[in-house]
Amino acid sequence: MHIHGYFDLQFEAVKEAFAELFNDPQERGAALCIQVGGETVVDLWAGMADKDGLEPWHTDTILNLYSCTKAFTAAAALQLVGEGKLELDAPVTRLWPEFGAAGKQHITLRQLLSHRAGLPAIRQPLPPEALYDWDTMTAALAAEQPWWTPGEAHGYAPITYGWLLGELIRRATERAPGEVIVERTARSLGLDFHIGLADSEFHRVAHITRGKGSHGDAAAQRVLNAMMREPQAMTTRAFTNPPSIMTSTNKPEWRRMQQPAANGHGNARSLAGFYAGLLDGSLLDSALLAEMTREHSLGDDLTLLTRTRLGLGLMLEQPDMPNATYGLGRHAFGHPGAGGSIGFADPERDLAFGFVVNTLGPFVLMDPRAQRLARVVGEYL
């Protein structure tokens, strides 16, 4: 496998570890970018971008980053907090009156950002096409009853997060949420990141497939068992209502829509660049970043059926949890995306890390491929 790109000679072992990923015949394409002190020390890519193995992964290849998108959304929301256009602890109903139905009148932006609002799923079955109708989804969430008393527990909201936060951003700015998030995060830093991809960019998008033959770790198996055996369970509903959530990744309508929980498109550079922008103060002032990276939720996650530790739109380091450690410092923060892509920062090393892959692994939190790469990086810093 030919490895393209650049690496500082100090990090040659990282390049070798990246190359070793492709010893697995199922691995199709991937990219890795690492910045230290704002300087790029690793920028690598390799493999194939298309379904049939005919189109090489290029320097400008992008792909669906899934929940890596959530951190961009949270940063934009916190910028609006800093400008007084949103309030962390004010009721959501101040901007979205209809949201107060079914006992939700006291839910706050902070609770939405930290997955404590009790809204990771919708009970009423929705048709597949509802996924692409913003008004249908926000109306369903406005009517939804929380699955637990808001503020008393936490459960990751894999996709409802996008409509919940996006609707608040839309009402605060009177603009489409994807445009606002991209403008405030990616465009200000010159990053190749999109929420609502133009058709003219489709030729650059890597095709996503799932790896075969692995059932993942114990956490992944718990989620899979729940989804197979309990169709009405909250965890199942979170990932399958509308039923098109799990099957739309490569569809044009998925790429076009603005779903700021799960359909951001970008590359490893955009992830590393975003976290470098958090570290150097380009995106948030120190007080807002401290709030974003402060522990808000810790313990059993009612959706993911494993222990999570959450900030505001971020997953925080859990060094004693093999499936929840970034593999570097104890203050690391970031966000994985389904199947393996991940972006994070280690403030102790002033390091920003982005890894993307188009063969999805079956892990709920951190993917072992990214963890291995991060640990090799740590040996040299």
UniProtKB/TrEMBL annotation:
Name the Pfam families for this protein: Beta-lactamase (PF00144)
Q: Which InterPro entries does the UniProt record give?
A: Beta-lactam-related, Beta-lactam/transpept-like, Beta-lactamase/esterase
Q: Where is the Beta-lactamase-related domain?
A: 18-373
The domain of life is Bacteria
Question: Which range is the signal sequence, renumbered to this chain?
Answer: none
Q: Which PANTHER family match?
A: BETA-LACTAMASE-RELATED, BETA-LACTAMASE-RELATED DOMAIN-CONTAINING PROTEIN
Q: What is this protein called?
A: CubicO group peptidase, beta-lactamase class C family
Species of the source: Pseudomonas linyingensis
